[in-house]
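Input record (one chain):
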Amino acid sequence: MKTFRLICLISAGISAGAFARPGMPDWDGVSWNSPIDTLEEKYGEKLVNQGTTRHWGTGDYSDYVINNYRYLGEHFAATFVMDSLSNGLKRVILSLKDSLADYDSATFESIYSSLQIQLAQKYGVADSTGFIAKYGLRNGFAKWFLDSTTIEISSIYSAGLKTKTIDISFYESALAARSKKNLWKYDAVRRIGYDLRKVTWGYTKEQVKASETDAPEEDSGDAIAYRTTFAGLDCTVRYEFVDSTLVRAKYIVREQHADKNEYIIDYATLKSQLTEKVGRPGVDLDEQWKSDLYRDAPKNFGNAVSVGHLYYLSGWQLPKTTINLMLSGENHHIALVVEYASTALANKETTRKGSDAITIGVE
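The corresponding structure, as predicted from the sequence alone:
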């Protein structure tokens, strides 16, 4: 049935000739930057507080979802992402709810293609499309740049790791402009605001504590840490200080996997989220081998990471912040870390002894 529907949609698209490109009234009749009260008025009891706040890396956050949102003939979970400066709506992410775990590649691609074609029928030919097959993953995407909104559909398929997701995302106009023109200078897009979460570089420990709502898990002389999430992954965020000044913060992923290859999936998820937010990495050092023992055995790549034979590394340079993402390991333990560091206060770091910072150059 899925295949038949796809063929019909392809035929309809061809017969329609050039697709029209209508405007889009932000999100479902709700203007971008609207407060959560507006969403509550529109959706009523369908809008549910998750109970925990999900952080998205550069200050955005999400508390509310609609667990069953009907779109393009499918059932999705809708996540509403808010800006931490204005507390206004910035992004909506629709994640396909149907269980995809048992679908083979052909069926999965049929569903993804069907959704992509329906989006093209609504918004015209996609401005950008792509397909990447790497590390056992198959990743497809397409984007539409409208006047006030960017629409993106993306898929990730890995039969061996049982990772199969299809998301459709809608972005507020400033994010759309940045995606279209590759304007990923952080402050220019987000105004003068936080460098991450609800803090800026140079904060004191007291100011950082005031920005967090929970009690810290760690509170030592030069660091404080909190339990949180990042891109949907269970994490610790650790703020690090020099001379009582915030110079660095790390998201340390706490997820545990029996299949160590799934840590590579987590790395790919984080890299995708960061690339989506701030642009392509200036440093892109995926699949770096120190030993070739497992190089020809993709099913053992995770084990290779855990014993220090393989690592993955990406880096971004923003006007005020260096971001590094690293997956590495030793002695059968794996570390996945996203590190944010102040560029202006980097000199303070050089005076700290025994720093475990990720030290790579970023273009």
